[in-house]
């Protein structure tokens, strides 16, 4: 969806979105247009546009003679990038990253299988070359280049599936990779086995081995989830000891 533009409208929208997604404003809470006008010192049209956007995202519902009410997570458009980013910015970051990674583990194997069946020789060859560059960046510890190439690699798998609906899920996979990097859940030097999994995916697609392509993508997602889990557990141990 297209969200409101303009500094004031975005300020209201982004602030309320973050507060709802991080639980500062809990489900069931209600507020009026007037209270938001007063809080942000903005005009009613600005507030109404921001609230309409939040309603479209499933975060709010209008209530007659009450104003608007905050809805529970089950009502949110959890696939919307803005909701994902608001959740990643708050205490539900771990749950959001886990959900995204599990979703990735479900959709990417299907995309890889289709890519192995549908990619042209040139397309598959380019993917193999991309996997080699990705391997080199990871082995050298070039985190910025690795992230850039990793996003390209996984985006390309979805595109090569030849399925327009899978291709549209690119932003979700991208948010997983960006989130891992932004919140220090990606090691500077990825394990060589993880780098090899990417090469295995590309090679399987090039040779038309759909089953191996799917298995290798599952291995990537499982490895990512395990790495994040270890980091989360380490952080929890440090907090407990302190």
Automatic annotation (TrEMBL):
<dbReference type="InterPro" id="IPR011711">
    <property type="entry name" value="GntR_C"/>
</dbReference>
<protein>
    <submittedName>
        <fullName>FCD domain-containing protein</fullName>
    </submittedName>
</protein>
<dbReference type="Pfam" id="PF00392">
    <property type="entry name" value="GntR"/>
</dbReference>
<keyword id="KW-0804">Transcription</keyword>
<dbReference type="Pfam" id="PF07729">
    <property type="entry name" value="FCD"/>
</dbReference>
<dbReference type="InterPro" id="IPR036390">
    <property type="entry name" value="WH_DNA-bd_sf"/>
</dbReference>
<keyword id="KW-0805">Transcription regulation</keyword>
<dbReference type="InterPro" id="IPR036388">
    <property type="entry name" value="WH-like_DNA-bd_sf"/>
</dbReference>
<dbReference type="InterPro" id="IPR000524">
    <property type="entry name" value="Tscrpt_reg_HTH_GntR"/>
</dbReference>
<feature type="domain" description="HTH gntR-type">
    <location>
        <begin position="6"/>
        <end position="73"/>
    </location>
</feature>
<dbReference type="InterPro" id="IPR008920">
    <property type="entry name" value="TF_FadR/GntR_C"/>
</dbReference>
<keyword id="KW-0238">DNA-binding</keyword>
């Amino acid at each position: 969806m297209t969200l409101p533009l303009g500094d004031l409208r975005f300020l209201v929208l982004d602030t309320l979105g973050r507060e709802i997604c991080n639980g500062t404003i809990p489900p069931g809470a209600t507020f009026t247009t007037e209270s938001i006008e007063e809080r942000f010192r903005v005009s009613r049209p600005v507030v109404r546009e921001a609230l309409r956007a939040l309603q479209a995202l499933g975060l709010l519902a209008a209530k007659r003679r009450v104003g608007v009410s905050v809805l529970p997570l089950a009502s949110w458009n959890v696939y919307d990038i803005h909701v994902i980013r608001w959740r990643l910015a708050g205490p539900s970051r771990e749950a959001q990253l886990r959900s995204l990674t599990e979703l990735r583990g479900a959709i990417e194997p299907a995309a890889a299988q289709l890519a192995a069946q549908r990619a042209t020789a040139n397309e598959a060859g380019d993917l193999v070359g991309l996997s080699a560059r990705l391997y080199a960046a990871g082995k050298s510890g070039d985190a910025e280049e690795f992230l850039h190439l990793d996003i390209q690699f996984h985006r390309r798998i979805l595109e090569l599936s030849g399925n327009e609906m899978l291709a549209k899920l690119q932003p979700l996979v991208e948010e997983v990779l960006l989130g891992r990097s932004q919140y220090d859940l990606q090691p500077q030097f990825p394990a060589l086995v993880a780098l090899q999994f990417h090469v295995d995916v590309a090679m399987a697609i090039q040779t038309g081995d759909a089953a191996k392509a799917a298995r290798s993508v599952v291995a990537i997602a499982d490895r990512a989830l395990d790495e994040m889990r270890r980091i989360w557990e380490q952080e929890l141990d440090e907090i407990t000891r302190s």
